[in-house]
Automatic annotation (TrEMBL):
It comes from Mesonia ostreae. InterPro entries: DUF2851 (IPR021272). It comes from the Bacteria. This is DUF2851 family protein.
């Protein structure tokens, strides 16, 4: 038994509330269950209105598995609980008193809970009934209306989480949106393997230096140099030239190279950090005010056009310093630009609009619905349990938020799908 389930019983009156009595035998009439406090500290339901034993009370409701949890959680020492008018518990094992020594009315839900609701809850959360997620056997039965609306809400949650990271970067950069954009794009260019290293490089390198440098070779020198990517012993003319350029800029701008190492292992050559940094350098050498441009672009097609960049001449026939290869353009692929939209551009649009007092929700939804769903084991499994559950990037992003934040934490009673199955 979990408190979440008791919250559900109280919130949706899934018990014999018409005949409910306190542990002292007083009648309870629910005039208003109260507002569910899902995120803040304090009582579980605010502003409830109850008739207890013929007297109307207005105040808060606190819910526990056992009455003694009141003391285990030290609520008797917290003024936030002084206005609790009803203590709802599964098992009443001790009286709870107010500061003036009057007992707080207690409802023992186990005496009045719906057997059907309890059975549905146990079937949902019992480990023997599922292998991957609690609702896997019944996920396909939930209406499309509920699933689609829930996925949209989940995606907004995901954007809000990313907005917190962006806001922290804004504070560090003194509200320099171009600098924050550079950091997010750099992280996306590094993908999962080198994203952290690229982000640290973009954060450690003053953006004022990047802003004033419009030469591809100098930018490459800065990016490679900050990550210590020049080979120790190499007679490659280009590598030596970049190193010389970085040594000069390091002194000029008082730069401190990072100890963070980039990885090549298990990466396809086109995803080598050398190529991705060369592409990033090309973009910043050829496009001014990238952030402002991105905020003006509305469609996938427009954004893809902005990122149709190549690499400098040297990297067309190299994947690493000193090792010549067959010449190729090494442009950003469609799939890679889609990842930039998902991981960097849309979160930036969302937070930028919110700080301006507006909303970019519809624009973000429109962009993500233009993109195909991501391909990974999580999305594949959801689509097996419910065919076509994810057909766009918006839906796949929502599911990638759902699995670790709800399913893996057994937060079924906070999930629209879980609640629907319980109510059914």
């Amino acid at each position: 038994m979990k408190e979440d389930f008791l919250h559900y019983l109280w919130k949706f009156k899934k018990f014999d509330f018409l005949h409910a009595l306190t542990t002292q035998g007083e009648t309870i009439q629910i005039l208003k269950v109260g507002n569910h406090n899902e995120t803040k500290s304090g009582p579980d339901f605010f502003n409830a209105k109850l008739n207890i034993g013929g007297q109307v009370w207005a105040g808060n409701v606190e819910i526990h598995i056992k009455s003694s949890d009141w003391y285990a959680h030290h609520h008797e020492e917290d003024a936030a609980y002084d206005n609790v008018i009803l203590h709802v518990v599964w098992k009443h094992d001790v009286e709870v008193y107010r500061e003036n020594n009057t007992p707080i009315a207690t409802l023992q839900l186990s005496d009045f809970a719906s057997a059907e609701a309890l059975n549905n809850y146990l079937k949902l959360v019992e480990k023997s009934n599922y292998n991957w997620i609690n609702c896997e056997k019944n996920l396909a039965s939930v209406s499309s209306f509920i699933v689609e609306n829930w996925l949209e809400r989940l995606y907004i949650e995901r954007l809000q989480e990313k907005a917190k990271v962006i806001q922290a970067a804004l504070v560090s950069s003194r509200n320099d949106w171009e600098a924050v954009c550079f950091q997010l794009l750099a992280k996306s260019f590094g993908l999962n393997v080198n994203g952290k290293a690229f982000h640290e490089m973009a954060s450690a390198l003053p953006f004022s230096v990047v802003r004033k440098t419009r030469n591809k070779e100098q930018l490459e020198a800065l990016f490679f140099g900050m990550l210590g990517m020049f080979p120790d012993a190499c007679d490659d003319v280009y590598a030596l030239r970049l190193k010389e350029s970085f040594d000069y800029q390091k002194i000029k701008y008082k730069l401190e190279p990072l100890e963070q190492q980039v990885e090549f292992f298990r990466l396809r050559p086109h995803n080598f950090p050398t190529i991705r940094l060369a592409q990033l350098a090309f973009i910043y050498a050829t496009t001014q005010n990238i952030f402002l441009e991105l905020m003006q672009l509305k469609s996938r097609k427009e954004i893809h056009a902005l990122f149709k960049v190549e690499v400098s001449a040297y990297w067309k026939n190299h994947f690493n310093f000193g090792k010549e290869s067959k010449s190729s353009a090494k442009v950003l692929s469609t799939g890679f630009i889609d990842l930039l939209i998902i991981n960097s551009i849309v979160p930036l649009k969302f937070h930028f609009a919110s700080l301006k007092g507006g909303s970019a929700t519809e624009e973000c939804f429109s962009l993500l619905n233009e993109l195909p769903k991501e391909k990974n084991a999580t999305i594949k499994k959801f689509n097996e349990l419910r065919p076509k559950m994810a057909t766009s990037a918006l839906e796949s992003q929502a599911l990638l938020h759902l699995k670790p934040n709800y399913c893996d934490k057994n937060k079924c009673l906070h999930c629209a799908v879980g609640l629907n199955l319980l109510i059914k």
